[in-house]
Amino acid sequence: MIAFFVFLLGALLFGATFSAWVWLNGFGCGMNTTGCNGFSLNWSDWEALSLFRPTFGLGAGFMIWGICLWIWRAR
Questions:
Q1: What are the angstrom distances between the C-alpha of 21 and each of 24, 66, 70?
Q2: Distance between CA atoms of 8 and 2, rounded to whole angstroms?
Q3: Mean pLDDT, consecutive 10-residue segments, the chain of 75 residues?
Q4: Separation CA 43–CA 53 (nearest Å)
Q5: Most Cβ neighbours (<10 Å): which of 16, 30, 54, 62?
Q6: Among 8, 7, 21, which Cα is nearest to 66's?
Q7: What is the pTM of this model?
């Protein structure tokens, strides 16, 4: 059961971080003075991604840890 909660914590953290990054991209598009017809995720913007890298890493780490706990306890 603990493996599920660790995995769930990681998935929530990873998902919240991804949502915040999408919101930041959308906010940047909306603040554009020339208007915005639509926006896409700016994968080349390493400045913004560097802010979210630690929480992406933590979320992924918790998910991997949860999977490892699940496999280890299934033996």
A1: 5, 24, 30
A2: 10
A3: 95 95 80 71 78 93 96 86
A4: 13
A5: 62
A6: 7
A7: 0.80
Of 72, 47, 74, 65, nearest in space to 6 by CA: 65
Helix axes 46-74, 2-30, angle to 10 degrees: 160
What does the alpha-carbon distance between residue 2 and residue 16 come to, in Å, rounded to a whole number?
21
> What is the domain range of residue 43?
2-32+39-74
Is 59 in contact with 13 (CB distance < 8 Å)?
yes
Please count the structural domains in the chain: 1
Which of 42, 11, 44, 46 shows the shortest CA–CA distance to 27? 42
DSSP per-residue string spanning 26-54? HHHHHT-TT--S-----TT-HHHHHHHHH
| First CA to last CA distance, the chain | 15
